[in-house]
Structure formats: structure tokens, C-alpha cells
Design brief:
The protein has 167 residues and is an alpha/beta fold. It contains six helices and five strands.
Length: 167
């Protein structure tokens, strides 16, 4: 995966900051399909920081790999605040990482409903011994690659926020 130089530099700064903090990261990705982990691991030295990544594209994978309740998915849908939070928490529990970021959304062109349009993405950020945060974005129907790209950028922002809140 080839990323824009500015995005790679941002990932490199993030990796250095996490290494200095002694923290590791886990990712739990659905609509981004592993792009967050791929971007982070483009950075030399990332093996000291990226603990693991879960690509849980299907509901079954979310349940099996992250422990997301099938009832929760049935009640709220895979693209929801509840599931994004559960994915982040599950990634933290099933890894040795201090921080986990999760993303679930509708990149398009299909899969939308009246209440869940293309471009809707939910994020979860779990940090050990802190409440799990949630972020919702409605990028719009900008095309699959653009929605996924914006989701990767917002996931980096959440990882940056986790560090900023340690000060």
C-alpha cells in the first residue's frame, strides 16, 4: 500500500511518540480492511508499537475474534456506536496493547439504508484504565476509496488523542 507522504509522516510521528511512551497499539478494522495497521507498519520500527491488528469484516469475525455480542450486532447493526465501542474494547482485551482503535462503517457503494447512509463510519478508542471513546463521521457518498481514506485519517487522530490525554 502506497500512502501520501504527509500521511506516512504523520504515522511515523505517531509511532515514535508511542514508542517513547512505551505503549503499543491494536487495531480492529471492518470497513478499512486493515489499512490502519498497514499504514502504521509502513513505518520502520513500528514492530515495537503495533501489537496486532484484527480485520473483522464479517459480523461472525467481530463476534469470534473480538467478542462482540451477536445480540448487540442484531440490535444495533454492525455499523453503530455500540459495536464500534465493543470492537475497541474487544481488541484491547484480546491483545497486550495499551490502546486499541476500531472502525466500522459503510464505504459504499452498496450497503446503505435510510438511517445508515454510505459514508457513515463509527470509531471506538479504548485505552487501558480509561472510558472507551466514540466518534461518528458522516463523510457522504464520496466513493469507496475516499471514505476509507478519511476513516484511516480519523483513526490516526484518535490514536493521537490517546497520547495527548496522557499529559
Amino acid at each position: 500500500m502506497i500512502e501520501a507522504p504527509a500521511l506516512l509522516e504523520r504515522a511515523a510521528v505517531l509511532i515514535r511518540a508511542y514508542a517513547a511512551q512505551g505503549w503499543t497499539i491494536a487495531t480492529a478494522e471492518s470497513c478499512t480492511g486493515g489499512r490502519i495497521a498497514a499504514l502504521l507498519t509502513e513505518v520502520p520500527g513500528s514492530s515495537a508499537v503495533v501489537e496486532r491488528g484484527f480485520v473483522t469484516y464479517s459480523n461472525q469475525a467481530k463476534a469470534e475474534m473480538l467478542g462482540v455480542s451477536a445480540d448487540l450486532i442484531a440490535e444495533h447493526g454492525a455499523v453503530s456506536e455500540s459495536v464500534a465501542r465493543a470492537m475497541a474494547q474487544g481488541a484491547l482485551v484480546r491483545s497486550q496493547a495499551e490502546v486499541a482503535v476500531a472502525v466500522t462503517g459503510i464505504a459504499g457503494p452498496g450497503g446503505a439504508t435510510a438511517t445508515k447512509p454510505v459514508g457513515l463510519v463509527h470509531f471506538g478508542l479504548a485505552v487501558r484504565d480509561r472510558p472507551t471513546l466514540h466518534l461518528e463521521r458522516r463523510y457522504g457518498d464520496l466513493g469507496r476509496a475516499t471514505v476509507r481514506g478519511h476513516a484511516v485519517e480519523d483513526a490516526l487522530s484518535l490514536l493521537e488523542r490517546a497520547l495527548a490525554e496522557t499529559a
